[in-house]
Amino acid sequence: MSTRLPMVAVVGRPNVGKSTFFNRIIGKRVAIVDDRPGVTRDRNYAKADWAGRDFFIVDTGGMLEDSDQALDRAVRAQALAAVEQADVILFLVDGREGLHPLDEIIGDLVRKAGKPLILVANKLDNLPQEEGHHDFWSLGLGEPAPVSALSGKGSGDLLDKVLEMFPDVLEEEVAENQIRVAVVGKPNVGKSSLVNRLIGEDRVVVSDKPGTTRDPVDTLLRYHGLGLVFVDTAGLRRQTKVKDSIEYYSSLRTDRAVYGADVCIVLVDATEDDLHAQDIRIVQSAWEAGKGVILLANKWDLVEKGTMTAPEWEKKVRERVPFLHWVPIVFISALTGQRIRKCLDLVIEVDAERRRRIETHEVNDVLEELVGRQPPPHHRGRRVKLKYATQVTVGPPTFAIFSNFPKALPAHYIRFLQNGFREAWNFMGTPIRLRIRSGKDR
DSSP strand E in 95-137: where? Predict the structure, then answer.
């Protein structure tokens, strides 16, 4: 099963509290908040959840319909791009200030989009006594939902409505013998060339100009009786390099493709001496999302080689990014086809590792050996016991360890356990997760 997360776009004129609302929904301060209008110029997006349902939420800049300034036109274009990509639109207005002429103009724009829409009257801090939201019935966009982004009042009821508006089908059924593979990396590292080489035809547009690929493209390849669905994505750049709405939302769609993948092939440029910060961010995002990861060093045919060139390059990147110790690294050339078949074999192997299940008795044998080797530190003079453990899920492999003081285990000891599990079962190319839970004394 591959899941496409729904997307919620937050739009409105400047200074109606969109960024405060965005921060409230995701539960942390990401968007810059200021009383001055126009502070949000670039868009912020993040994954949020409500009532067990995950979704993307996008904060947009304030829309100024009648401004001739280039920046204002760009902000408006980016907000409209968000509307186009959204599954649900939240149109924020200022319930304290009342109806503004610009609200009517923006209301007409979002109405024409034909998307599920909720009119949200913000800044009503004295709910339920406030009645300022009734002024916005005249927009003809349905019943205004009163909220206070600052205090959180009304946000729960609003999110309940948002979930009801999500499309019924956001999960794509994938046959049991299919693996979804997202091909990700910086612009111009050879992602499209790799996909074309894998499938043996020029199915994807290839160009030396960075950013040729805008949308994820699905390509099915049959290999050893399995269906490998490759998703060639737009190149991921640092946010400061994302200048236009098309490229920004290409980046958003790429993140959604990573979320829906089973395995991520991360391409880097082998002609560069080391991984760039953006390479690391990309591979970390796939790893933290719980996906299988394979690192491909492309353009190996262009590298001047010595006897230890590949081992030294590999050692350098593994030392810089410790979790890459568990990630397979392959030196390839998408242009010549060097080691391309090995990539296909690794996709199957990593996916199998990600879905691997360990018997409970084996998990407990390893846990007992690790605790015997290094007992957990005491908590307030009392002994911390790790009673038993079991694997609770796969994709990625997740283990529950039951303890009398689950919150007392320090991070370094949890890493020790995690590394011990790695030594026992490897789990090549896939992250593993430990959940420390409360267990009563026996």
Answer: 117-122
